[in-house]
């Protein structure tokens, strides 16, 4: 027998009051709601009580969860130098003021008649990302950089009809894994060697591997290991000479000081929008962007939605609509070039707010500040005996490699640093064994000189 | 004078310019944190360290605005957006537009969540790992599956993940080359056909029987073979019809060595009533942004954990949260894992909010949720069928529906020329969000698919029916009102030509400026 519901009238369920229920069931013409489930065959009905706790009041629940969350250490309690795909940046209060607006938060898929705000904010997001990257087409965003680069590689394979994508061996291992999953049978991913002194992509290896089978060359700038890939133009030339595309993955704040990929020949650009006004959230509030040249062969190679600005019947109004909506998986089903689904719109609206606050000068100053601080940190850490910082003789943006030539493993160093309430950089010794005992450190505008000096002092003690 | 199209509702009309039109060179909305002099001195001329070819020659052409201007602009845009908190959104079926509790939002804003880095030593992330672990356990209890992975970030992403798991399973058995087909009923969500193709499978589509609205068992029997990798199916369908053959399908697919993945996007009506694991599903997913009350965020981020039976656990994406009885940790040591389907571990804020929602509902609340959601829907079915021009396909075979129902305005369209697109432009004049029509192909002509979840008050249902009745009256007496709609919204009818015209579409302001010339 079914356990009789003990549920009191729940604050989230208006019609659970007995009188309303009775009225509604009378209108339907049934005696109990149970009758409405008769469409499910009895043999497969679940007739027990779910093995879940009893309902809690808001107060009890909140208190319980706050207690649980208190076991996490925040970046103000733990001085952290982690990046590796999720970066600590200051989030202006305005960003959260707007992203908390329930009109944005609780909406979904209305047309521009009812949801003009969403369309316009997303169009502004697309526009600003277009200016950052020097691309004319930016799609409605996807989940994160990893999935965006997977989509970009797929798109390149479909647009060219070729089945191989060349990527640098310095690619983020996580992104490589997702790219491989996303490309499935459409393209094989092959790794290109890097110059051990500089980290730069080996042009020789690229030239020896690229062929008429190559759909695209994918590079990251800055690379996962923090250095700037300086050969954008050269790589672009090699790719294009073979009829392949250039796909570039970027961290967007770096574009305050770095040449936009569109200017060195990128056909498709992707990247991570988390630095644009989104907090770290344990890696859970990310935003993947995807941009390309304004050519139909690219648009038809992706199922991602595209919002275009449009006119309306009344003068002076802006309207918006979707471009070639038949491409999306919603319409194309098994003919779609990629998945289309609930993406990251609220994160993109937040990123639009962030970029409009920063403006052109703010973005440049921020990128410069990040570089100054990370370079100060690099220089200070490199003065400690037994370290090599960075591993590569190249320009760096906000992340850099720290090699511990002395006896300690990164794991041991990080354990020792934790005693100083410092979280050291990400251990990449397993991901890049050829680099030895190496960690990936990240320093941004949120780190003060005092923070960096504290790290240096602690490292000095740990490595003594 | 009161115009015919007046409804008593008026949307906010700001005619807000595009941000770029508000550009005032020299203004700024943000001060960059200061760099200490010692840092500047030691870092040196930083820009000159960037190789010349990679130095940005001029700043990006972003608009420049002060902070109050930015705030006003985006507040105005938010006022021109319509969410669950704004008014009636019950027309938006398949989306389960339920109330998003405010306390869950407040919890998700805690720095104890927002300011935590995903790669911190697990010693310092025990709280969030515990929540992830516990939510997975609860989803197992709700679904009857054995293990969950929280990484997928939306429904389509979850189906793609499940298709990859099917691949890995057949690959390990040495049968991937042979098993290259996935079967799906067309009334399943489109990603059930689309995502397996993206994963490299050939897709076979089953169409519903004209009489019953569900595929015939014989059709599936004819479709399966040694090439069958599996089946992807949404049950109940977006028609609100529960496919009673589901157990039979599972049996047929299993008999030929295939796997069954059930898309539980429409699970709101099943909570505590049916566990898909008990029916024999090998894989499934839930949409936390549907059944589990996390907000839709104007189209994401959502969250769609996948659940599998034990024989597929080893293929789940890495990492999986483990508990050794004392501490939680992330387990990457899973040699058969399909790897990663996205960065890090999932949409953490949504995971927290769903966890909080389950805690406030409990087992009893989940049963009450499905009960009231299904009651609301059947009440709406009963009342909407009073409206002239509205029909419900398969009504005789399926007079009762679960979470939603797919109606048709075919009759209204034939009799008045007014179809669902017109009605959808008109209904927003009343301060009611437009209805979801149908994914393609439109099996039901002139379709609309409302879904009134448990958080919908009866008064909203009555108002929705009343407005539908009024629009129907307009269609039958003065259809131009409906044809020319909207009248009371932020903007008038959109000229959609840029949608198809490469010379007119502009996805960025820079493209618009170039093409305008």
Question: Can you summarize this structure?
Answer:
The complex is a heterodimer of chains A (464) and B (517). By secondary structure, chain A is an alpha/beta fold.
Protein architecture, described:
The complex is a heterodimer of chains A (464) and B (517). Chain A is of the alpha/beta class and 464 residues long. Chain A has 14 helices and 15 strands. In chain A, the strands form 4 sheets. Chain A has a 7-stranded mixed β-sheet with strand order 2-8-7-6-5-3-4, sandwiched between helices. In chain A, strands 11-12-15-14 form a 4-stranded antiparallel β-sheet, covered by helices on one side. Chain A is globular. Residues 1-5 of chain A have low confidence and may be disordered. Chain B has 517 residues and is α/β, with parallel strands linked by helices. Chain B folds into 3 domains: 4-81, no CATH class; 131-358, Aspartate Aminotransferase, domain 2; 371-493, Alpha-Beta Complex (Aspartate Aminotransferase, domain 1). In chain B, the strands form 3 sheets. Chain B has a 7-stranded mixed β-sheet with strand order 1-7-6-5-4-2-3, sandwiched between helices. The two termini of chain B are 42 Å apart. The model of chain B has no long low-confidence stretch (mean pLDDT 97). Chains A and B meet through helix 1, helix 2, helix 3, helix 4 and helix 5 of A and helix 1, helix 2, helix 3, helix 4 and helix 5 of B.
Task: List strands and helices in order, with pairings.
The complex is a heterodimer of chains A (464) and B (517).
Chain A: H1 18-28, H2 58-69, E1 79-80, H3 93-99, H4 102-105, H5 116-133, E2 137-138, H6 145-160, E3 164-168, H7 173-183, E4 188-192, H8 203-209, E5 214-221, H9 232-241, E6 245-250, E7 268-272, E8 288-292, H10 296-299, E9 307-312, E10 319-322, H11 329-332, H12 345-382, E11 387-388, E12 399-404, H13 410-418, E13 422-423, E14 426-427, E15 438-442, H14 449-463
Parallel strand pairs in A: 1-13, 3-4, 3-5, 5-6, 6-7
Antiparallel strand pairs in A: 2-8, 7-8, 9-10, 11-12, 12-15, 14-15
Chain B: H1 37-43, H2 67-79, H3 102-108, H4 111-114, H5 126-143, E1 147-149, H6 155-172, E2 181-185, H7 191-198, E3 202-206, H8 217-223, E4 228-234, H9 246-255, E5 259-264, H10 276-279, E6 283-286, E7 306-308, E8 320-323, E9 328-331, H11 348-384, E10 407-408, H12 410-416, H13 420-427, E11 447-448, H14 458-477, H15 479-483, E12 494-495, H16 509-516
Parallel strand pairs in B: 2-3, 2-4, 4-5, 5-6
Antiparallel strand pairs in B: 1-7, 6-7, 8-9, 10-11
